[in-house]
Structure formats: structure tokens, C-alpha cells
Design a protein that fits this description.
Elements lengths: L1 H10 L2 E5 L6 H15 L5 E5 L2 H23 L5 E3 L9 H5 L12 H6 L6 H22 L13 H5 L21 H10 L3 E5 H9 L10 E5 L4 H8 L2 E3 L1 H11 L5 H20 L4 E2 L5 H20 L6 H22 L4 E8 L3 E8 L3 H9 L3 E6 L9 H6 L22 E5 L6 H4 E5 L13 H14 L3 E4 L3 H14 L4 E4 L5 H10 L3 E5 L16 E4 L10 H12 L4 H18 L10 E5 L3 H4 L2 H7 L5 E3 L2 H11 L4
Helix pairs in contact: 1-2, 2-3, 9-10, 11-12, 11-14, 12-13, 13-14, 18-19, 18-25, 21-22, 22-24
Amino acid sequence: MVAAVSDSLASGVHLLVQAGTGTGKSLGYLAPVLSRLVDDPSERIVVATATLALQAQLGHKDIPAALDAVEAVTGKRPKAAVLKGRSNYACLYRSRSGTDADQGALVGAEDLAAAASDLDSVSKLGVEVLALRDWVEEQATSGSLADRDDAPSHTAAGWAQVSIPSRECLGVTACPFGAECRVELSRERARDAQLVVTNHALLAINAMHGGTALPEHSAVVIDEAHELTSRMTTAATNELTPGLVERTARRALTWLDDDLGVDFLEVSDTFRAALEESELTRITSSSAPLAFAAAQVRDLARRAVTSLGGQHNDNERTQASAAVKEIFDVAARIAGLADADVVWVSESEVRGRTAHVAPLNVAGLLRSEVFGEKTAICASATLNLGGNFDAFANSVGLRTAERIDDGEEAPEGDDLSWRALDVGTPFDYRTQGILYATKSLPEPRRDGLPEEVLAEIAQLVWASEGRTLGLFASRRNAEQAAAHCRRELPHMRILCQGDAQLSELQRTFIAEPDTSLFGTMSLWQGVDVPGETCQLVIIDKIPFPRPDDPLMQARKKAVDDGGGNGFMTVAATQAALLLAQGTGRLIRRSEDRGVVAILDPRLVTKRYGRFLAKSLPDFWTTTDPDMAVRALRRLRGAE
């Protein structure tokens, strides 16, 4: 992997590299990247990973260790910096704008926090905000970044009182605290660094806004690259609710004439009524109530933006104008119903009905703005799906015909050639793990788990004496399985997502080996539980996209309309990726042993099952449930 990354950086040919769990993937790209930066101090390389948590692990653990090694060998230490999106740093203007009334308070934030248990929720939020404001001032005084990850314990509502959306930022020159801006400080440190660690979301924003979010760089390493299209889609997705329209209109009322203000307020009711009339599915007709109502919101927001503009020195007005401009942009996109977008309506108990708009495809954006601009190295444990890299390459805009073999040079002037490499794994999956793929259980159904499947789950958990990670297609299935196992195995502790905070459940699962943890998609990726705590992974259902997911259905239809196989390209490929991630929870170290049980017979009985199976680790495979039970019993020394 080190050799391939080095060659890619030198040649400019993109690299897709699959590095299985345990290979030391981070060092596999950090070593050649840092070596190149030592040789050329004028160069800068960006590393983008999927989540803020992984970004923190790289920035605080992996990269400092690698830099220590580089310095020991070369005597040089390239500068590294972590860069996040604006809302991850406190805004001094937002934090300080509400503090004047607090200056004469007789009771400080620390004293209030001590009494918080006796306060109602509104008062607790106030205490939380006071504590955050005190912390922001400490950060500003000490020259720190006021990074959310370093903040005192807080809620999202509390953080919103000391941070600001990108659109509402006044700008360095207009903001009274521009000279102290923590976001600008973070960007300044990034510009001064050779290695910049960011996340997929900021990489997406950089792609969508002409390269303005990241400092100039010669190459990008995309870690956890299997998440890239999903994160890019999320960054390019917008939503609009009647409540948001109404709140934004009220915020702007002070600076609007009476008639426009009333119209802007009342259009939220029009939008609400249109949502209620809409089906919970994709909207394609320009005559649909939602498209008509969104056009009304767009037109009134445009007039409001015009009224709020002009020359003035009112910061609150500037921010209100930015918020209205965002309403205008989203409403215009929904009303436009462009072929490149998917518009749909969803409903939840908490938020009611919401209008969404997302890109039909992000491959074109990635091709032009990421791979077409810089050398890119994509690294992940799961890029080889169905036996090759084509599915992933196509999803990010690289074409199968552009792949070149080792030793082959890219055509002159070609910036989109790519190579692929599977560096394998240090694990011997065929001796460390068994894949039990059922052939006899009933196929999944929508109304919960069949009795036969519940009985099989209980038997497997019994054989493993707990030590089970259950990955379920829905919260209902997880709760049903947990309830059944608690009845059938009362002496065992079964934790279920929703019983407590997920982080707390995971800590208990790790600390108590005979405990089992059942949950949904949050557990499919990123759970690292080596050792005997996890000797059985149960998957109740092949994780195809929901059949009522408007975005996935639109993407499948687009492939079908283009002459391809939408099911295999979209649904089966996503299922293969998630299955590979889910089954990968079992073997995390060379000493690990266990069983993966997939209780969906379609893996064995359907033609697409072969494609899915090729995406999984090379476990020894059986369709015999008794063999799986005996293997688990032997692990526990019971046979």
C-alpha cells in the first residue's frame, strides 16, 4: 500500500485501495504522504475521513505518532492541522451578543450549574449557555480554537447559542470580532500546515463551492472512502418545513413593510397545506401542490431579500437577510423540480411533514470537482464489491474504461486514469470465522420477525453465552428480538438500542463479555469490539435500501432508463457494502474467533446472492444451523 500510494502521488494517477481491518491503513497512507511532504516543504496534502470522530482520532492519535516517527528518521516534522466546518467552532459575535444582560449577575455559571438539577428545561438551557459563553471567552483568551469537541457538556440547542451557520456569518471585515474569529484562526493554521485533516462533509462543501473551503493542495487522501457518496449526497441535500419558513419570516419582520411581512408569514400556512396534500413519495409534477407552494415561498423570499438588502450597518439585519436567502435557495430548488434533483415529502412524529431535495447523482460532481482537480487516493476496508472495484469507481465518477494496470502509464493529458489495489488482510478468515447463511428460514417480511427466526436467534445467543452483536434492519426487529431473548434466556443480559445512550450501551457491551447488544444501522459501522466480547454477529436481513426510499428509487429508475440494471447498480451495491461492513464487526484482531449468522435465505437462494457473498470476508461457509451452534459451543468450551 505504501508503494502504491507513493507511486500515485508521484504519477498523478488516482488510486483505489482496499486495506482490510488490521492492515494499519492509516499508516499505509500517512507514511508516504509525510515522506513526500518532507521532500517538498512547499506541498500540501489533505486527508479527509468520514466523521468528526475519525477525524479526531487521526488528528490526536495516528498523525502525532506518525510525525514522531518521521522526525526521528529525518529530523524534520511537517506541520499538521485539523480543519472542520464553521459550525464546529464557536462564534464570538453570537456568543457575546447575548451576554450584556448577564454582566451584573450575582450568581456565576459554575454556581448555577451546580443547582441545575433543580431547574426546568428552559432554565437548564440558560445555565448551559452561560457555561458555554464562559468557556468561549477562556478559549479566546488562551488562543485556542473554541472547537465544539473541547466544549463543556452541552446540547445541540445550547451550542446553537454560541455558533453560527455559514450563511449567516457577517464576514471578517464586517464582524466586530473579526480579528479574533476562531474559524479564521483554524483556517490560518490550515494554510500554515502541510498536512490538513478534514472530513467528507467539508470536502463536499469545497467541491460544491469552487474550492473555497479548503486551502490549496496537490492531493487528497479520502479515508473511509466507502462513505464518500453518502456524505456528499447529505451535504448537497436540503429540506424545508413550514416552521422554518415561519421562524425566518418572523426574524425578518422588523425590516419588512407590513404587507410583505404578513404575506411572508402567511405563506408558511400555504406551504403546510401543500405538504398535507402531498403523498409521502417523490414529487415529479410541476402542477403538484408542493411545487406551486414552494414557488410562492421562493417569490416572497426573493422580495424579502431585496427589502433587507442595501447599505446599512445592522448586523442583525444582515444575518436575517442571509437566513431568508437560504429559504429562497431551497424553495427555488424544490419548485424547479430539475431533472438532476429528487424532491420528496417525508413525515415524522417530531417534525411533522418535511420537503426534501437531493441530487439524483453525485458522480458527476465528484468526477469534475474532486478527481478532475487533484490526485485522489481512496482508502477503505470495503471498496471491492462483488469481486471488483467497478461499482465503487462508477459511484464516484470514475469509468471502468479509465482503469489502467500496474506498470501502464496514463495517457498524456488524462487526469482521470485510476488504479486499484486490494492489499488483503492479516487475518485468516477461513480459520478464524464461520459464515452461517441460512437456507431454511422464511424470507424477511414487513410485519416483524417470524417465530422461526426469533427461535434461531435465541438458540445462537444461548450457544454463544451472550457475546452477541445483533444487527437488525429496523428498530422494531431489534426490539422484538431483544424481548424474545429476554423471555427465553432470562439469565442473560440483552441490551437494545434505545435502552440508553448508544455510547453507554457500547461501553457496557465491551466491559461485560457475556452481554449482548442488539441495534440498527448505527451499529453496522464503526463498532470495534475485539476479543471474546463479540463472538457472534447476527444479521437478520440483507440491508437493501427501503423500497419506499424516494431517492434510491429515483436512482434505480435512472439506471434502468439508461439501459443498466438499477437493482444491481444501486440496491445490491449498497447492500453489499453494508453487509461487508456488518460482517466485518466479527474479526478485529488476529486472535478473534466467532460466527457470523445471516438469517436471510436470499443470500443463498437468489442469483444476486453470489454478488453479495463475493463482497464478504472469506469465511468458511455453512448453511447448517447445528454446525454454527456447535462451533459457538466449542468456543465456550461446552463441547
